[in-house]
Specification:
34% helix
Length: 125
Amino acid sequence: MFKFINTNPEKNLVGDCVIRAISIMTNQDWEKTYIELCLEGFMMHDMPSSNNVWGHYLQSKGFKRYIIPDTCPECYTVREFCEDNPDGEFMLATGTHVIAVINGEYYDTWDSGDEVPIYYWRKES
């Protein structure tokens, strides 16, 4: 299920998970995604990595936000989400990380399968 990918042009691991995940989900390069999120943040007077900014950006790209039910807050993992959702495009958000999921596979710079997602964005048709 885990697929290693780092869209950062310098292959840096610099806390840019939002940019990396969105670039994967929108099929854009890292630079274009970074610039567009910075502009969105500028217009909203907020940081590009804030949930509000990148959420608004995803909404403008046809994504819709959903909350993961809190029936077992510590036991539902990214890996299990992928097993439960073998079709579709999702952006999973944990408390500190963002992960791209496409057709049951999660794309990241490290195996984040044991992380616990709180909510997700789904690409709507």
